[in-house]
Amino acid sequence: MATQRKSIKRTDAAKIAASEPDLGFTGESLWQYAPSPESTDHVVLQKRYELFIGGKWVAPKSKKYFATINPATEQVIAEVAEGDAADIDAAVRAARSAYEKIWSKMRPSERAKYIYRIARAIQEKARELAIVESMDGGKPIKESRDFDVPTASAHFFYHAGWADKLDLAFHGRPYRSLGVAGQIIPWNFPLLMAAWKIAPALACGNTVVLKPAETTPLTALLLAKIFEEIELPPGVVNIVTGARATGAALVAHPDVNKIAFTGSTDVGKRIQAEVAGTGKRLTLELGGKAANIVFADAPLDQAVDGIVNGIYFNQGHVCCAGSRLLVEESVHDIVVRKLRDRVATMRVGDPLDKNTDIGAINSKMQLDKIRALVAAGESEGAERWSSPCALPKKGYFFPPTFFTNVAQSSRIAREEIFGPVLSVLTFRTPDEALEKANNTMYGLSAGIWTDKGAKIFWMAQRLQAGVIWANTFNKFDPSSPFGGYKESGFGREGGRQGLSAYVEVG
Amino acid sequence: MANETKRLGMRLSVAKAYKMYVGGAFIRSESGRYYQVSGMTKGSADAEVVNIPLGSRKDARDAVLAAKAAQHGWSSRSAFNRGQILYRLAEVLESRHEELVTSLVRAGATESAAQIEVATAVDRAVWYAGIADKVSALVASHNPVSGPHFGFTLPEPTGLVAIVAPESPTLLGLVSTILPAIVSGNTCIVVAGESDPRTAVIFCECLATSDLPGGVVNVLTGRAKELGPHLAKHREINGLDVWTPDAALRTQVERDGAGSVKRVKTHGAEAIAALRDERAGQGLGFVERFLEMKTVWHPAGL
After folding, report:
1. Quick check: B293 contacting A, CB < 8 Å?
2. Of B199, B149, B153, B152, which Cα lies nearest the Cα of B172?
3. How far apart are CA A208 and CA A496, in angstroms?
4. Residues of A in contact with B283 (CB under 8 A)
5. Which of A473, B57, B200, B289 has its CA 20 to 30 A from that of A28?
6. pTM higher than 0.90 for the full model?
7. Does residue B24 form part of some domain?
8. Nearest one of A390, A350, A349 to A27, comparing CA atoms
9. Antiparallel, parallel or unpaired: β A56-58 and A445-449
10. ipTM score of the complex?
């Protein structure tokens, strides 16, 4: 009987879907936009960037440099120093010296003012930073301009205010800073991740050695220029560019007190094993495979917007992306139809064009990984739909894509794709939605779409994820703790709770 | 005493079989293995030498199933109810004060040290009972985000925590490590101190009579070196709390726990000694070790 009722519902939904006018959102024909590129005239990149150690720009001991390219053009935009273990050692020494002689001794209210200065300078240089972020990493300028850079500044503002209020933060319990923090950040939000890491570390009285991602080092280096300009004492923050070996040297350095890492779960596990027995403090913000759950009683148009934002924001290079869409079966067809119509209007192309919705995939390596997982999805029997949008001839691009008829066991439902690829699954009851949502080693985020408040709380209490977005998705704020359950890592970034990562509380 | 009784032709005392406590039941090791513990038995019906189950890796896996089964029910009890149960535990511990003192003395403590340890343990149980429904108020937050959203962050239990309890203080070690884990809704598997786990078994009898649901606390007896790394690698276990002066074992469980991104906390001799301190041995920080922070966002608007 129940089955019969379900099938009637489903037919109704299909009818509604069929009765909606076909707006012809199937390609470019109706929606031509003139190019609207952000001017890059006033942005002058150096040909070559050195390491920022002890307040000075120093050549890497190995004399080696690597190219950083614009993934939208495949052109080299700058050369960057490749730091090795010797450079890491110099940076840690500089950080240690700055910690002992200056930063840990400074009055907290003075520390706060340095951090406020950083926040202000980011605002003043916001457009330059946004342009370089989009050039180096491929993200649409509207995202780097309206999200990454302002949020990075906000993180410094927020944490500046904590610097002289830490005695209030821990209910009067005794606390102390940790010392030198080694921080390794990913390529998906380069400046923002630098801010997430550096701001709380400094506010809590630690000094920093930061290793930016290999493919996106430039905005961290521009941030170093800001540190110079606002006269942050030498050695308080040191920036050592490089690849995996550089990060490994930082993790292995015996005089580092704390490691903070954002990146893949695989690398996070290796780091956790590496620091075993060393007494180093560790926080990990790792991968995700978030369920975005749409109930039949949800406002579907808003939900579709949330689905799109959840998975196609920043080309899907988001650890908390809503990459598993769980749709209540009775509205599956209509949601898929609306999703297809909406995604077909998205503009993929030049990251510096102000109308671009989806920019370039960050690197050739990542593009290959996305292609491989999409091929796996097809060979495992899921049905693929990709936007028919035109892709630029040069550069690394991938059309927004989703799969329907996805089995839970499929690789595209289990593995983090980290690209603009959504897997659509269905459920019939809230229990089933919950079971499927939690059936993953990850636990970073989850989305719930329904008009029923009680259902939101019932789900929110049971979803094993560090961040739950109800009737919204991909929202971030420096006052809002962010971080994972299970194999998505431990520790929080943001909020009062995030401070614990950078202090020892008695 | 038992021998003396026999010689005099008086009543033969009934000695207790010391067993592990898993899923609310007192069990022997599935492996059939045992090891022997001897000690002075003043005031006790026990034999000079008692056989203790030598818990196996399979016992550890069985305990995981028991703890997992109890997880949802325990974490969805009200904080008030969990507090009541812990207070009940304090009452039961107090009622067994003499037995616990005797057990600690037979394991090597002086009479006065044992008296202090039991009293501190009872008081500590009362302390944790009282914090059950305050943890959220102390660590949660409303997040004043920019934009039309209502956001808040709440604590939740990490899940299943494996504890390697300190050898000494025995009773205080158990109370100080188990209660802060379970008060927030975690379940746990505990490897009791190896040298004399009899006090741990008496403690389990207290747990069993405190209305604590079976499976919330599971206590294995055996070798920390054998069971610790196995628990550290078990993917269904979310947290590890290892109290041992053995630095090599601490390093090993930290490394083994990395394979499933466990929350691994290890503590050496200094931290173990500090458990005896009335203040340093308890606190919100002990509870926070196995909490996860969950942040929830919802739009606020028409």
Report:
1. yes
2. B199
3. 20
4. 173
5. A473
6. yes
7. no
8. A390
9. unpaired
10. 0.93
